[in-house]
Write a structure and sequence with these properties.
alpha+beta, globular
């Protein structure tokens, strides 16, 4: 699943998994190489359900002890 984002190189699709990893790395001291596969923390089915269910607005899960929230618009928050 991809989300369209605007960055230094313009607008384009980015895999949701990459957005999640980038947010966790930016907001914590976790090295991406120390993380397990994303499927160890959240299932792809849960991410798809977020995109397809109009009643769901966010999905929360934990990565290496850090709470992560993925919103329906692709925003990733690591408080």
């Amino acid at each position: 699943m991809y989300v369209t984002v605007t960055g230094e190189r313009g607008e384009g699709p980015v895999p949701v998994g990459q957005l999640i990893v980038d947010a966790v790395v930016a907001e914590t001291d976790i090295d991406p190489g120390d993380m397990d596969r994303l499927s160890s923390y959240v299932s792809a089915d849960e991410i798809v359900a977020l995109a397809e269910d109009p009643n769901r607005t966010s999905l929360s899960f934990s990565i290496e002890g850090h709470e992560v929230r993925l919103d329906e618009d692709g925003t990733v928050t690591v408080p």
